[in-house]
Structure formats: structure tokens, C-alpha cells
Design a protein that fits this description.
binds pyridoxal-5'-phosphate, 7-stranded mixed β-sheet, Aspartate Aminotransferase, domain 1, Aspartate Aminotransferase, domain 2, 3-stranded antiparallel β-sheet, alpha/beta, globular
């Protein structure tokens, strides 16, 4: 079969981008040039607006994938161990485990507070942990744990951290722009996201929303030159430029994507579209017998984990290849104990693409000789 349109990426980044966003990358930019500096400055201001951080926070962009920015936020905000840094990571999935690992690898003391993967982390358990260990200086929370798709209670976790006087670092990689985050009400030191997620840019840069007071205290924390957001911020404020070579095409694509985000109606409109995508997907897949891993009340409208069908004819690789042939890129599961696969609801797609994806899955099941998507349990 030949495809006359790009395949639809049902993945949580990279994801399907609009033609306007793709076209924005057809021009070359000088990294020192005033025109490019103006793009960076406007982009930073618009990203800050999305979380209402004017006057209190600042946005520092960083080259690389999302993990680079998580690492940079931890390295910049958390003092080294000998200066009292001790991070508590709330762990209900794969990206939480990654955050704990990178914290440790950077020489920070890290303690993990484990939770079940099928539910959110517990603010009450956090409260208890903070009461039990006064040495904890910072808490790391993954807002939407993309490993399963579960939504964690950011406002409640932030309130507990504030009560205890602890810094909060939020990985909002797969929620920023889609789920509401208001820096006037939710106290955090750093909140991290990236270009190729719910803002629907292309991958290649992250950015960190930093509370100015926390940033001002962070000089000299980072053991890494490239990851030092304090340094990146100072240089950018002074010169308008990125410290090291910027991903120019990624930056202008994100600026164009953010213009479309604003035109669409900002975060509420983005959330409404993704909720509609998620509903169309879950209802359509239920009609084929598939069951989501999460209960609806803890499911974020970002990515849905489905149980694999019980049929012995099911094989993810074949399932994936057959769906790909029909124009849709699915995503493997990230759970170790049970077999699952994931379907993203984000990107420059709407209800029609989700309905077409369900049709493609129905066709795929028929081709594989699977009568129903129902799991074993
Ligand atoms: C919650 C979360 N954290 C971090 C990341 C960063 O991953 P990467 O470095 O692959 O962009 C992702 C990517 O999907 C994510 O969903």
C-alpha cells in the first residue's frame, strides 16, 4: 500500500505536527542574528504566559531531548549532597524511575517513595515521608506519568511541599500546554517540558520554568557546564542568545506551533481536543473488546495504555506492522509485569484521525485472525 499522507503518530512525542509547523523549518537562521534572538525572546515569554509565571518565574530553554532538561533542572536547583541536597522522588512509573536514576548519577542523594503503577501518587504518603525525614530538601513529581498515562495530583503535592518548606521539581513533559498549571497557585521551583509534546512542535529542545527566587540561589550547583540553567539564563538575559549552538529549526518550529496553540484557544482548547481524542479512542477500542489499563478517573487524556488481547494470535510486532501499513504508528507498552500497548491522543490530530485509527486496528485484528481485543482477565 502506498501512503499519500504522512503516517499519523499515535505516540507521545515525536508526534504528528501541522503543515504550518513543518513549513516553518524551511528557512535557515543565524544563531547570533537579532531576528533569531527575537524569536527566542517571544517564545520564552509565551511559554511563561501558559503557566501565568510573569514577574515571578522565568523560562530557560535547553538543547536536547526532554531528559536533558530534567537532568539540568535537578543539577541546577538541587545543591550537591555535601551542601544539603536530598531529593525524594515520587515513583509510580518508568519516567519517575528515570528521574531517580539521573538524580543519583549526578551525585545527588535520592530517596524513592514507591507507589503502584495503576494509580496516582499519594500526597498523604508524601506528607508522612517529609515528617519522617527532615533531610529531604526537594521533591520530584512526574505530572503525567507517560509510562502508563496516569495523572498525578500536582496541586495537592505542591501544597504538601509548600507546607513543609521543600522545593518541588515537576516533570510536566507530557502535560504542559494541555493540562492546567497555574504558577500563581501552584508553588514549584522548576517545571520541565519539551518542544515535541503537547505544544506540538518537533523534538530537539526542552525548557524549564524556574521560580526566580530558586534560580537566584542556584549559582554554582551544577556539576555540568552544558546542563547549568543558571549559566544559560544569565547568558541569555545578557546577550539574548543561547549559550551554545541552538537547534534553530526546532526553535522556529516551536514558535510557529505556539502561535497555532494561541490561535486554537490556548490550554483549555488544547485540553478539550485531547479529551475528545481520548474519548473517541477509548470508546472505539472498547467496541473492539479492548480494555484500558487505568480506571477512567485517573487516566490523563494524553496516552492510553491498553491490555494486549488474550488471543494466542496476538503478537505486538505483527500488530504494530499491520497498523503501520494502514498509516498509524502505535507505541509499545512500558509495563514489565503485564503485556500492554499504548496509543497517544496528542499531536495535530482530532476526532477523525482517532476514529480512523480505531478502524485501522479493527482491520488489523481481522487480518491477524483475532476475534476480539478483550484481554485475558
Ligand atoms: C514524563 C516524561 N518525562 C520525560 C520524558 C523525556 O523523554 P525524552 O528525553 O525521550 O524526550 C518524557 C518523554 O516522553 C516523558 O513523557
Amino acid at each position: 500500500m502506498t501512503m499519500d499522507r504522512d503516517r499519523i503518530l499515535l505516540t507521545p512525542g515525536p508526534l504528528t505536527t501541522s503543515l504550518r509547523t513543518k513549513l516553518a523549518m524551511l528557512k535557515d537562521w543565524g544563531s547570533w542574528d537579532a531576528d533569531f534572538n527575537a524569536v527566542t525572546a517571544q517564545l520564552r515569554a509565551r511559554l511563561l504566559d501558559i503557566v501565568h509565571g510573569q514577574g515571578t518565574h522565568t523560562v530557560v530553554p535547553l538543547q536536547g531531548s526532554g531528559t536533558f532538561s530534567v537532568e539540568a533542572a535537578v543539577a541546577t536547583i538541587v545543591p550537591p549532597g555535601d551542601k544539603g541536597g536530598h531529593v525524594l522522588v515520587l515513583d509510580n512509573g518508568a519516567y519517575c524511575k528515570r528521574a531517580a536514576k539521573l538524580t543519583q548519577l549526578m551525585g545527588r542523594r535520592a530517596t524513592v517513595l514507591p507507589f503502584a503503577e495503576e494509580g496516582p501518587v499519594s500526597p498523604a504518603a508524601l506528607d508522612q515521608a517529609l515528617r519522617g525525614d527532615a533531610s529531604i530538601s526537594h521533591v520530584v513529581l512526574i505530572h503525567c506519568e507517560t509510562g502508563t498515562g496516569v495523572l498525578n495530583p500536582l496541586p495537592e503535592v505542591a501544597a504538601v511541599c509548600q507546607r513543609h518548606g521543600k522545593g518541588l521539581i515537576v516533570d510536566a513533559m507530557s502535560s504542559f500546554g494541555a493540562l492546567p498549571i497555574d504558577a500563581r497557585e501552584i508553588r514549584f521551583d522548576a517545571l520541565i517540558a519539551a518542544s515535541g509534546k503537547c505544544l506540538e512542535g518537533v523534538p530537539g529542545m526542552g525548557f524549564v520554568v524556574l521560580r526566580q527566587e530558586a534560580l537566584a540561589r542556584s549559582a554554582g550547583h551544577s556539576q555540568s557546564l552544558a546542563m547549568d540553567l543558571h549559566d544559560q539564563h544569565q547568558y541569555m538575559e545578557k546577550t539574548g542568545q543561547w549559550r551554545f549552538t541552538p537547534p534553530t529549526h526546532v526553535v522556529v518550529a516551536l514558535a510557529e506551533a505556539v502561535q497555532q496553540f494561541i490561535d486554537e484557544g490556548g490550554q483549555p482548547a488544547r485540553l478539550a481536543r485531547y479529551q475528545d481524542n481520548c474519548r473517541t479512542l477509548v470508546e472505539g477500542m472498547a467496541g473492539l473488546g479492548f480494555r484500558p489499563f487505568l480506571k477512567p478517573e485517573v487516566q490523563a487524556p494524553i496516552i492510553v495504555t491498553f491490555h494486549a488481547p488474550a488471543s494466542p494470535a496476538y503478537d505486538f510486532k505483527r500488530f504494530y506492522a499491520a497498523a503501520k501499513q494502514r498509516g498509524f504508528i502505535l507505541y509499545p507498552g512500558k509495563l514489565t509485569e503485564i503485556e500492554t500497548f499504548r496509543v497517544g491522543c496528542i499531536g495535530a490530530i482530532g476526532r477523525n484521525e482517532m476514529a480512523q485509527a480505531v478502524n485501522a486496528v479493527a482491520d488489523t485484528l481481522r487480518e491477524m485472525g483475532i476475534a476480539s481485543g478483550a484481554p485475558a482477565l
